[in-house]
Structures are given as C-alpha cells and as structure tokens.
Specification:
Strand content: 15-25%
Structural class: alpha/beta
Order of helices and strands: HEHHEHEEEHEEHEEHEEEEE
CATH topology of the largest domain: Rossmann fold
Bound molecules: ribulose-5-phosphate
GO molecular function: ribose-5-phosphate isomerase activity
Largest sheet: 7 strands, mixed
Helix content: 25-40%
Number of domains: 2
GO cellular component, one term: cytoplasm
Keywords: Isomerase
CATH architecture of the largest domain: 3-Layer(aba) Sandwich
Shape: globular
Pathway: Carbohydrate degradation; pentose phosphate pathway; D-ribose 5-phosphate from D-ribulose 5-phosphate (non-oxidative stage): step 1/1
Protein name: Ribose-5-phosphate isomerase
CATH class of the largest domain: Alpha Beta
Number of helices: 7
Length: 262
C-alpha cells in the first residue's frame, strides 16, 4: 500500500517551535533525499526525529535497500526504532546525503553544532557526505554565530586536558567565560559518546566574523578532539518559520522562501 504523506503526530498538537522544526526537516527531506540515495547520514538533536519521520513516510520500497548512519546514541536508537537499516561510517566512508540539526547558522552557512555533545561524529558524517544539509527552527537563523546561542562553541576535549584547554581559552583565545559543561541528572561533567568532556566557549561578534579562523586556532590546542564550528561544509540550510513557510539558504548566498509542505 502507498504511504499516506502526513505526520503520525495529530495536527494541532505540535507547539509553534516543534512545527517549525518539522517543516524544515520535511522540506529538506523532500528536496534532498531522492530514490537513488542509498547511504544517508542522520544527525542528532530534537529536529532530526522529523527528518526520520519524513524518510519513513517515503515508504518501504524507497527505504528497503538504504543504509542509515547515525551520529550518536540518540540517532542510532531512532534509526533502529524506525525500522530502518543501520550502518556505520567505517563501513560507508562515502555518504550520499547527511541531514543534521544546528544550534546556529550564519549568512555563509557556517554553523555551531554540539549542543547535544555529538559534534565529533556529526562532523565526520558531514565531511563524509557528498551533500550536507542543515535543518532548524527560525531561532537558529542568524547573521553571525553566538548571537542567540549563548553557551557558545562546544569543544570536545580529552578529560585529562580540560583544565589546560580552559586556561588556553581564557588567556589566549579571548573566551573568558568558557566553562566545562556539567551534566543535569548526574553529578559531574557531561561525558560524550566517545568518553570525552565538553567545554562551551562563547566568542565575541568580532571573532565570529571569521569563524574558520577561530576554529583553526582552537583545533591546534593539544587535548582538543573536535570543535563545534562547521565552516564551509553545508550546501543548504532549511529554517521552519512561525508563519508555516520555510526559508532555505544556499551556499553562495541564494535565499528562497518555500511554502509549507502538506
Ligand atoms: O549539534 C547537535 C547535537 O550535538 C544538534 O544538531 C544541535 O544541538 C541542534 O539540536 P536541536 O535540533 O535540538 O535544536
């Protein structure tokens, strides 16, 4: 039987923010996950379940020969519970399309990622992808990074180096408020899927005019595993808006307003 293209979530039960995440995710899937795509990267966060929701709605025939690569524990569980085929990036180092969320996206499609502490695997899957697409709600659509997302740039570090990297950030990299991310329902720091810690480092507007430069400097600090600044990687970013439309920003500067899909 052909799938019915509608959300399994009853209409009207989503908040405005959740609806905007869903709109972005659905539009990105409709535009970028095509029948010929066999290996698909699935990002992390609260927007990505809507990506998987729309992929599932493409139906059994479309999905039966596909492999889905997760960026962490959450997306692995999502892939399995949705009945999709699971693979890993060491088996599939070339991915057709990766779709992922973002904490903030600037005019040039540079973005902050790692709000969910998954940015190491997320960056590997973004780099492995022939096409990397971002999906987010309207709050993430900014001109400069660190505008609305106040925690700053997530930096994954090996545990024994965290104090040294914090000192480097405070003293040499102009991020005096960089802090170790603490867990909420556990005493002590957040531990990533890779067994590492995360530092959140806010940067000034001046530094965020050239996020690649600051990313390169942070990456050079010994003990840093990965930086949650993804520069010059995304082909397009989709933002769900409060009025039901979707804004698509493309690499090169083109901006489109897309009516909501049904
Ligand atoms: O980078 C991420 C996880 O490491 C997420 O993609 C990012 O935090 C966005 O999440 P959400 O869709 O919940 O806003």
């Amino acid at each position: 039987m052909e799938p019915v293209l509608k959300s399994p979530i009853p209409a009207g039960t989503l908040t405005a923010i959740e609806r905007s995440k869903q709109l972005a995710a659905w539009t990105a899937v409709d535009q970028h996950i095509k029948p010929e795509h066999r290996v698909i990267g699935i990002g992390s966060g609260s927007t990505v379940p809507y990506v998987v929701e729309r992929i599932v709605l493409q139906g059994y025939e479309a999905n039966k020969d596909r492999v889905f690569i997760p960026t962490g524990f959450q997306s692995k569980e999502l892939i399995i519970s949705s009945g999709l085929g699971l693979g890993d990036v060491d088996q599939y180092p070339t991915i057709d399309v990766t779709i992922d969320g973002a904490d903030e996206v600037d005019l040039e499609l540079n973005c902050i990622k790692g709000g969910g502490a998954c940015h190491l695997r997320e960056k590997v899957l973004a780099e492995a992808a022939l096409t990397f697409i971002l999906v987010a709600d309207y709050r993430k659509n900014v001109d400069y990074l660190c505008t609305n997302f106040k925690p700053g740039v997530p930096i994954e570090v090996v545990p024994f180096a965290y104090a040294k990297v914090l000192r480097n950030l405070h003293e040499s990299l102009r991020s005096p408020n960089a802090t170790l991310r603490m867990a909420v329902a556990k005493a002590g720091p957040v531990v990533t899927d890779n067994g590492n810690f995360v530092i959140d480092a806010p940067f000034s507007r001046e530094d965020m005019t050239d996020p690649y430069a600051i990313m390169a400097r942070i990456k050079m600090l010994t003990g840093v595993v990965e930086v949650g600044l993804f520069c010059h990687m995304a082909k397009a970013a989709y933002f769900g808006n409060q009025d039901g439309s979707v804004t698509a920003k493309w690499v090169g500067g083109k901006v489109e307003q897309i009516p909501a899909c049904q």
